[in-house]
Amino acid sequence: MKRQKIVTFGELLLRFSKPGQLRLTQGDMFTSKYGGSEANVAVSLATQGEEVTYITRLPDTPVGHAGAQCMAQMGVDISRIIYGGKRIGTYYFEPAAGMRAAKVVYDRDHSAYYDLAPGMIDWRTVLKDADIFQVSGITAAISQQAADATFEALDIAEEMGITISFDINYRKNLWKYGADPRETLRRMLRRCDMMFGDAIEFEWISQHPQPPFTATDSNFKMQIPEYREWFDELHAQYPRCRQWLMGMRNIVDSNHHTLTALLFTDGQLLEAPVVDIPDVVDPVGVGDAFMGGFLHAISLFPDDRQRQLDYSLAAASLKNTIPGDFNLSTEEEILDVLAHRYNGQTLYKTIE
After folding, report:
1. How many CA atoms lie within 13 Å of 115's alpha carbon, on the beta-carbon side?
2. For residue 340, which of 26, 127, 161, 264 sits 20 to 30 Å off, Cα-Cα?
3. Digit-coded pLDDT (tens) for 188-233
């Protein structure tokens, strides 16, 4: 297998939660973990054996350096991280329990990444010899200057002929600086070669209704003709994008989720099985695990799109069993899930 050189770009965050199932208003102790969408993708890729460089801006403080060291310990190249500003971005996570939904509270204003601006990162050096540049909608959501830096990176990556991978990652509560989020993310989508998002995000960016995904177990049947029509419309609007990966999750209850995914590529729509996950430990970062799994599967199964899709879904499924933002599943563990859980029964369906 040829290892790819992959560059991911985004804000590293410090995540705070109360122990166990305590609410944010209870108790007197927080636990902390590092995370953030593009950092999650980087760690997932490094754990699976890829050469990955993570780009961000961190404060030149012990907390900022601890975040960089955390990434380095996971096998990620941190040599291009830049330092400046006064604080690291944070978020507070309250896990779901029973009928109570999970809650996320962001505290990212005027973080080191918030104040990132064009010209601070030497993108031509960073992207030299890169095969893939991974970015998400969050990179443009934090502030106007961070959005400008994101488009600077996209312009240079496009000029250098690097494959651009884009995760919609629409977070309504982050868009506070006045930009139109849908138009901004559509501008990013026009530049990308492959795109990931969950079906809700696809619906939001395209304003096309999603066929219902109400699976309570693995026997659910997808409305494939409706999805096919949807992907045809998207591809007509954004012809540069060659691969469209859509994830779907149904939350049966706080600890019981179902997952599946579709891949539209080369005029074909590929369907993965519905995976029933009855014992969810931590659902944060599942979409990032999809993306990390898919980018690795491209090199692992270069000529088999269906295996790429199934591998990505297996990676995302495993993330539900791991506390924290990072998917720490190895290639061997993901392949083992494919071999034992699916048992070869429904893996290789191509829908013309």
Report:
1. 13
2. 264
3. 999 999 999 999 999 999 999 999 999 999 999 999 999 999 999 9
Q: For 275, left (φ over 0), alpha (ψ -120 to 50), or beta? A: beta
Q: Which of 49, 69, 27, 32 is nearest to 335 (CA)?
A: 49
φ, ψ of residue 248 in degrees (nearest 5): -135, 135
- Encoded tokens for 184: 């901004």
Phi-psi group of 53: left, alpha or beta (phi > 0 → left; psi -120 to 50 → alpha; rest → beta):
beta
Confidence band for 131, pLDDT divided at 50, 70 and 90: very high
Q: CB within 8 A of 198, min separation 6: which ones?
A: 246, 247, 248, 249, 287
Compute the average pLDDT of residues 57-70.
Answer: 98
CB-side exposure of 159: number of CA atoms within 13 Å?
10
Q: 12: which strand partners?
A: none
pLDDT above 80 (res 345): no
Amino acid letter, 167 = D
- Whose tokens are 């309504």? That residue is 172
| Alpha-carbon span 328 to 334, nearest angstrom | 10
Kindly state the tokens that stand for 2.
């040829």
- For residue 20, the model assigns a pLDDT of 86
Structure token pair of residue 236: 């007509």
Cβ atoms of 259 and 272 closer than 8 Å: no
17 strand-pairing partners: 31
